[in-house]
Amino acid sequence: MKPYYDLIVIGSGPAGEKAAALAAFYGKSVAMVEKEPRLGGAGTNTGTLPSKTLKESAVFLSGFNDRGLFGVERQPERAVCVQDLLFRKNTVTAKQADDVRRNLETLKVDIFQGQASLVDAHTVTVQPMGGAAPFALKGEFILLATGSRPWHIPGVRFDGAHVHDSDTILDIDHIPSSIVIVGAGVIGCEYATIFAALGSKVSLVNGRADFLTFLDGEILGILRKQMETEGITFLMPNRAQGVTVCEHDGKKIVSAHLDDGSTIEADMFLYAAGRVGNTDSLNLGAVGLQASERQTIVVDEQYRTTVPSIFAVGDLIGFPALACTSMDQGRVAVTHMFNLAEFQRIDQVFPMGVYTIPEVTCAGLTEEDAKKKNRPYLVGHAWYKDTPRGRIIGSQFGLLKILADPDTLAVIGVHIVGRVATELIHFGLLLIEDSVSVERVAAMIYNQPTLHEMYKNAAFDVVRQKQGLPPISGSSAF
Questions:
Q1: Which one of 137, 221, 349, 447 has the minimum C-beta count within 10 Å?
Q2: pTM of this prediction?
Q3: Radius of gyration of the chain, Cα coordinates, nearest whole angstrom
């Protein structure tokens, strides 16, 4: 322990780790405080990585992507059990947590295990886990990166066995025959498709009739149709007013009571309607800070709070609350603390990825955005099934969609639903950031067969319309 640090970081999730690493890389003395026994925060242990790993496990174990492709169906030697589902998740999260620790230790970051709370603008008290005496850390700057946790509906007892939040669902002891999921946001929709792929009967409850409203409407329509094809029942608009667990014929049954007066019975219940910031133990009042109703903290463009020496990043400051943006928020905060030249601000255009089955992702303007702004646009479509690679992998419904400015033909939006969509979007992101013309996109040479050929096909579709020809979809646009 040093008598005085350049930076004290509270929380080792994506935002905190990358902030600490950048500061240490530039020779700053850094202390990292983490209350959990394993580093990495929700991104590693309860959120981003584990849920995405479960999705890949569900796709593999169910044979989702191979159905009807090769003339024979894979027949597992035994029924899939929950240990099969969780095996890869446990392996991936443990390895990532080890990598986070190794990265920080290599950069000479001092790691302290315990609960941190603010004393003043430059002092943090740490209460070690296990009852050891608390101690104080002092530093020039303090970065709050404590993340968020699932919000619990009042009056519902989350027992971690039959009634779950998005943390405890990661440690289930069986694959449910049926499940009620409340919340059709990113988390709720991802888990709905995971359990549907595994054969669970899924009921998806949402308080509003619309959902995932940041997505392009056409893309969302394809996702919803595929979810319905997989047997997911949408109950919207509806709200869960209560949950009871009772025993019937020796088996626990969960009853979800909805505000329309109906009751749904299922094997399991998952509440995935929002998260709240982890501010309870930070003692914000000691430095004059105050959290919102959802326990988020207001910051400026440099991620500085109203206390000049204290910054906040990640889920703690609210939208977009993505691991990818949180990492760069941490880097930007450190850049401004120490007047570095690395990361002055995060990119204004960033991808939004939903790891449903199939994946959905977007960057830039949607058609709905363009209409609200009265901005003219052209649309180019390219379907997975119309490309050689799409035929090889058997994709029947995937779509890549480009929005372009009708005058300059610059790409202003890219939207994808289908296999590895979250990988394909980054090329589109560069097209938007650099205002690349669809004529240039159409002229580029792409490996064949690859899914990236869809960019060429969608670009040709826009070029045709610019020349007064009708839209066309297919692998031979010209």
A1: 447
A2: 0.92
A3: 24
